[in-house]
Amino acid sequence: FENERGVQAPVGYWDPLGFARDGNVALFKIRRATEIKHGRISMLAAMGYITPEVTGKFPGYLSPSMGLKFADIPNGLAAISKVPGYGWAQILGWMAFCEISVDQSPGKPGAAGDMGFKAFKVTADAPETTEKKLASELANGRLAMMAIIGMFFQDGLTGSAW
Question: Residue 6's closest CA among 45, 35, 43, 41?
Fold first, then answer.
């Protein structure tokens, strides 16, 4: 797998736990699609962690029936206990919809990480540009996974991600 997308300087091919040691291409593709998905989620999570600190919060109510305003929800991990149960149900329902709404079986675009949303235009006449963008997405996703877990740890230890 040394020539797969995502093998980049300065690390090169890196599999410290030996998950791909057996050479199973099907399992590698499943893990790569999972890595892409987790990277995208982590990029959104990192921005979601930072944005309320920088731009503020939405005006109005998160839950009018409970009298709970968006401004009443703290940033970071403290928000987990403040969001109402129905809010968590909506979040989990949306996650389930996103997961099952795309066919991710082998050989389908979803299996390769194509979930139908295009953040950039893929064109057949510029494959090197497309390859660079896809490799950048992997690298940025990896960085975001480390960033969000770092923010979680810092928030858990100090009570603030900042």
Answer: 35
Specify which residues 69 forms β-bridges with: 61
Residue 3, SS3? coil
Q: State the pTM of this model.
A: 0.80
Element (H, E) at 147: helix 127-158
CB 123 within 8 A of CB 130: yes
Amino acid letter, residue 78 = A
Q: How far apart are CA 103 and CA 2, in angstroms?
A: 28
Amino acid letter for position 108: K
- Asked if 130 contacts 122 with a C-beta cutoff of 8 angstroms, the reply is yes
Query: Tens of pLDDT along 84-133?
Result: 999 999 999 998 988 888 787 777 777 766 777 665 555 555 777 777 88
User: Do residues 162 and 77 touch, judged by C-beta distance below 8 A?
Assistant: no
